[in-house]
Design brief:
This protein has nine helices and no strands. By secondary structure, the protein is mostly helical. The longest helix is centred in the C-terminal third of the chain and has 32 residues. The protein starts with a helix and ends with a helix. InterPro entries: BaxI_1-like (IPR010539). Pfam families: BaxI_1. Keywords: Membrane, Transmembrane, Transmembrane helix.
Length: about 270
Amino acid sequence: MTNPVFNNSPVFGDPRGKGRGGPATTQAPAWGTATTDAATLEQMYDAPTATTRETGRLTYDDVIVKTGGLLALLVVVGAATWVVAPQLWIVGMLVGLVLGLVNAFKKNPSPVLITLYAAAEGVFLGGISAIYETMWNGIVPQAVLATLSVFAVSLFLFRSGKVRVTPKFRRTLLIAIAGYALYSLVNLGLMLFGVGGGDFGPLRSGPLGIAVGLIAVGLAAMSLIMDFDSIKRGVEAGVPAKFAWAAAFGLIVTLVWLYLEFLRLLAILRGD
């Protein structure tokens, strides 16, 4: 797993084993047990089949509704920040970073904290998008369209089975993201010490910056597929419905990353 939201969750974990060489499991965790007599069992057998919603289990509809609501909040707050106070983007970035870390490592999802995270990201994205739009007219609609397109294609590839999340897929993505994170830290360090040039640092400018940007977009798309797989396993395992908040939060984190990568990539393409 690469998304810390799903990676640190006990309900979205890979049932085939944790880590290389770990013991594999083939049975989903039991989220509730009960002792019944023969008469009760007969009544249960004759009763209509209960849906996952009636049993309080996670459903895809729950995830869709929560994700849609958080995205709507993010967009509304982002639009307001863009118009009123785009300079607050750094505040939103710092608050979003703290809330993101808190939510990622919580055992049980907090709807309040997750909602506050979406609002903070709205402030951050609204402000930073206004800055990009001032420098490169029309870049924000392009980045939004590109983000939605990659999301749709990733979902299609996952649902169609054309891309399968295997242990090799996970290991490859984990190594690639770790390498990208290290590369970004080196680039940031060079920027802070005034080494090289470019708006995004010496390692994220020009043809090299375009290549790295395309790689980053690919990694974010692969992370989306990993997120879809985690949600699928959570639904199939019958985890409690409250974890729809965690699933929605995980998707928002990846979508924010993807959008920012598109902003940077398009800016480089249009003139660093």
